Amino acid sequence: MTPTLTLAWKSVRNRKVTALLTILTVAISVILLLGVERIRTQAKESFANTISGTDLIVGGRSGQVNLLLYSVFRIGNATNNIDWRSYQEFSQHRAVEWAIPISLGDSHKGFRVMGTNHSYFEHYRYGRKQPLAFQQGKPFDRLFEAVIGADVARSLNYTIGSEMVIAHGISDVGFSRHDNTPFKVVGILAPTGTPVDKTVHVSLEAIEAIHVGWESGANLGNNPSAEQLQAMNFQPKQITAMLLGLKSKIQTFALQRQINNYPQEPLSAILPGVALHELWGMMSVAEQALMAVSVFVVFAGLLGMLSSLLTSLQERRREMAILRAMGARPRHVFRLLILEASALTFVGLLVGTLGLYTLLTVAGPIIQQSYGINLQMSALSQYEWTLLAAVQLAGTIIGLIPAFRAYRQSLSDGMTIRV
Q: How far is Cα 52 from Cα 129, in angstroms, rounded to an integer?
């Protein structure tokens, strides 16, 4: 250890309370800066990983962001439904390899209920084209059977064989529940980190069955029992949206144009990637605002460090004078203060980075469960290293101000006792 470094270490130890407060200020600033960046990037990845391998999403005539939100992320509601005959026509189109029908509108204790068929479990992909897997059980086979996501099972303590009652609409209240048709849980999906985890999956036929005796969202009474409904044959009349996988990517735009110009009813076909890009474009202002807030917090932290160094410099004028009297040159004093500022910033960066990973370990599962954002415990990215280097450089530059003032102080000024 060099003499200057040793002297800087002893000087910091002599002012350990002030140094610890300075380090804590920088650390909190770094936690916020890296935390905002980590949440921003991981949120993008979580949204992008929600759907994979789907070429087109088709729904009632609507904006592409709205269609993406309600069909994939279960946010909001459809402007209009799709006639079942339209689904059959396009699912059998020569360019289509597979089709997944989706029917939304009901809920269970705050979780969305989605009607679909076995194509969903066979063809739906997320992340890097990962298929859905069952943690327990199997797909539904009978009318009143349900497959639930991992978050539904964990939050409601449901297991295989548990019974549930679906409510009409998003509000799960007594008068809107389909009490005459309880569902039995037959499958629990493995966690995916997507809205699939927060969804209750039932068959399209079950969606039709539970609404027998309901008109325009109102229960007209005299609802058939579950046994009576199971003896009937149900055919879907309408669905909310459909996901299409094509045999060749070359046919994507031609089929999209054909669907958008479909004469039987107004439909919209969107590309998931393009819709996601538009969604992030709409949210870019919020991203920039968050980053600006975190940058200002870092700036405030560095100003706090500058204030601490300048205040301590007034208290250390005699110390500087003694160093000068013992042979230290002005450049030695200058280097000492620069080194102290750099060291405090570096330790603050280190503590802040460790604090970030500690928070990710503790709060990561809570954020994933509440918001569906999977915060991975990955190494710092190149951009995050750049942010840390910028903070370190700013801390060193901040140290130039008290160092320059100390450099200009004369020996006589330091030895003079002012009353």
A: 5
Is 318 inside a domain boundary? yes
d(CA 172, CA 243): 27
Instruction: Say if CB 33 and CB 356 are below 8 A apart.
Output: no
Specify whether 189 is located in the same domain as 41: no
Q: How many other C-beta atoms can be found within 10 angstroms of the C-beta atom of residue 258?
A: 15
In our burial notation (b when 16+ CB lie closer than 10 A, e otherwise), range 194-218 reads bbbbbbbbbbbbbbbbbbbeeeeee
Residues 266, 60: contact at Cβ < 8 Å? Answer: yes
pLDDT (tens digit per residue) in 166-194: 887 776 665 567 777 889 999 999 988 88
Asked whether residue 262 falls in the same domain as residue 312, the answer is no
> Does 266 share its domain with 290?
no
User: In 374-413, which positions are buried (b, 16+ CB within 10 angstroms) versus exposed (e)?
Assistant: bbeeeebeeebeebbeebbebbbebbeebbebbbebeeee
Residue at token pair 């450089």:
393
Mean pLDDT of the chain: 82
